[in-house]
Specification:
It is a single chain. By secondary structure, the protein is α/β, with parallel strands linked by helices. The protein folds into two domains: 87 residues, Urease, subunit C, domain 1 (Roll), CATH 2.30.40; 330 residues, Alpha-Beta Barrel (TIM Barrel), CATH 3.20.20. Helices cover 29% and strands 22% of the residues. The protein is built from twelve helices and 21 strands. The strands form four sheets. It has an eight-stranded parallel beta sheet. A seven-stranded mixed beta sheet has the order 3-2-7-18-19-20-21. It has a four-stranded mixed beta sheet with strand order 5-4-1-6, with no helix packed on it. Helix 3 packs parallel to helix 4 and helix 7 packs parallel to helix 8. The longest helix is centred in the middle third of the chain and has 17 residues. It is globular. It starts with a strand and ends in a 19-residue tail after the last strand. Bound molecules: N-(aminocarbonyl)-beta-alanine and zinc ion (2 copies). One zinc ion (ZN) binds next to loops.
């Protein structure tokens, strides 16, 4: 099956140019002017951009958290991703305490298989860094799970100590893996949470007040120092929210260390003011790290433009405000009367591409090429999927989005495809929208119509990170 995409402007991380793209089967077969392909299906992309499909390297489908599960599964979440122009995700498997990594990997593959509509990779959340687990990390890398998330927060649940972090950093570098760090000082946060609750400060906004930006800055700096002590090994900070942490990334990059970080749309568009929404609505924004004061947003945009930050992911981890799902009565409401029991996370897998196009490119904060770089190409490189994913090139997977730069729409839970009963950006008007979404040569979204099918997504065996960025 051949498809010819004609008349569009191809946009990659480095170039914009007018050319046709011939897709043959699952791959990009040819790029050039006025291509001919008898019998091929044609897609007219005149006046549109032809970009590599978005790659979201931070999602949590069905994540167990605080007595419930993230409300999107691999079917609903990847379908929503496709509607937003994302054609690959990397989700996080979670190691059970004391359990082999393989068991967690297999459990997540089971959740994804038969459900995912787009391709997916897996990171591994490591909760106990034993000698056995350090050995198992090598098998994981060989089998395509080449990145490992560690937590400096959530004591007693996910948090690991500095010695464990150090050992994991050394090991990851030996075997060609990458450590991804949740950098917040969990010990200090726990003290602040207990003090707030003792004073009957229970409203959602206390989630933010007990997780100050200094706690993120301290942990980020400590993590990079540990990576430096481990021999200057690569380290990737996930969901960076605050200038305090950004300064640490910059410091270590300026020293020539392989320091990387992602931020997420919530930290670019929402702020601590959202916690003051009426009633219990502040719970919509309870995520970790929390939303920050508005002035951080400009600094994060500058960080993205200057390559202090290399990736925009989503940390998609939705929990319903009212309706439960699959018989689960309460999600965010688990924390009524105690902010520390509100499940942490918010939806975003569907809205990342158009929020960042509108807020970034249309508002002149980043160039068109930089947008593609941040949302597709560098994620593919750092997470070991390039050039199979993340670019428009002959031989790459035909994961292609035809993007209409003029289309506008209003974000709303009434029309989104994520399985969650609110949208953090409700009512926001955005310019720019995917009109055709192709995954490995198959059109899976055509305007507002879903043409894919569950289970067509494939597990991607990822390689070692490509670190030149
Ligand atoms: O609040 C968040 N971020 N929930 C998901 C888990 C994590 O730490 O990424
Ligand atoms: Zn995290
Ligand atoms: Zn996360």
């Amino acid at each position: 099956m051949k498809t010819l995409i004609t008349g569009g402007t191809i946009v990659t991380a480095s170039d914009n140019y007018k050319a046709d793209v011939l897709v043959d089967g699952e791959k990009i077969a040819m790029i050039g002017k006025d291509l001919k392909a008898a019998g091929a299906k044609r897609i007219n992309a005149t006046g549109k951009y032809v970009i590599p499909g978005g790659i979201d390297v931070h999602t949590h489908m069905e994540l167990p958290f605080g007595g419930t599960f993230a409300s999107d599964d691999f079917e609903t979440g990847t379908r929503a991703a496709a509607f937003g122009g994302t054609t690959t995700i990397v989700d996080f498997a979670v190691q059970g305490m004391g359990e082999p990594l393989e068991k967690a990997r297999d459990a997540w593959l089971k959740k994804a298989r038969g459900k995912a509509v787009i391709d997916y990779g897996l990171h591994m959340i490591v909760r106990d860094v034993s000698d056995k687990v350090l050995r198992e990390m090598e098998t994981m890398v060989k089998e395509g799970v080449s990145s490992f998330k560690l937590f400096m927060a959530y004591p007693g649940v996910f948090m690991v100590d500095d010695a464990s972090i150090f050992k994991a950093l050394v090991r990851a570098a030996e075997i060609g893996g990458l450590i991804c760090m949740h950098a917040e000082n969990g010990g200090v946060i726990d003290v602040l949470v207990k003090r707030a609750l003792a004073k009957k400060n229970t409203a959602p906004k206390w989630h933010a007040l007990t997780r100050p930006p200094e706690a993120e800055g301290e942990a980020t700096g400590r993590a990079f120092r540990l990576a430096e002590m481990a021999g200057g090994v690569p380290l990737y900070i996930v969901h960076l929210s605050a200038t305090n942490a950004l300064e640490q990334v910059r410091l270590f990059r300026d020293r020539g260390l392989p320091a990387y970080a992602e931020t997420c749309p919530q930290y670019l568009f929402l702020s601590v003011d959202n916690y003051d929404e009426p009633g219990f609505d502040g719970a919509k924004y309870v995520m970790s790290p929390p939303l920050r004061e508005k002035w951080h947003q400009d600094e994060l945009w500058k960080g993205l433009a200057r390559n202090d930050l290399q990736v925009i992911s989503t940390d998609h981890c939705p929990f319903c405000m009212k309706e439960g799902f699959q018989g689960q009565p309460k999600q965010k409401e688990l924390g009524i009367g105690d902010f520390s029991k509100i499940p942490n996370g918010a939806p975003g897998v569907e809205t990342r591409m158009y929020l960042t196009y509108d807020g970034g490119v249309v508002q002149n904060r980043i160039t068109l090429n930089r947008w593609v770089d941040l949302t597709s190409t560098t994620p593919a490189k750092l997470m070991g999927m390039f050039p199979k994913k993340g670019t428009i090139a002959v031989g790459s997977d035909a994961d292609i989005v035809v993007w209409d730069p003029r289309a506008t729409h209003t974000i709303s839970a009434k029309t989104h495809h994520m399985r969650v009963d609110y949208n953090p950006y409700e009512g926001r008007k955005v310019k720019g929208k995917p009109v055709v979404v192709m995954s490995r040569g198959e059109v899976i979204v055509d305007k507002d119509k879903f043409l894919g099918r569950k289970g067509r997504g494939r597990f991607i065996k990822r390689g070692s990170p490509i670190l030149q960025t």
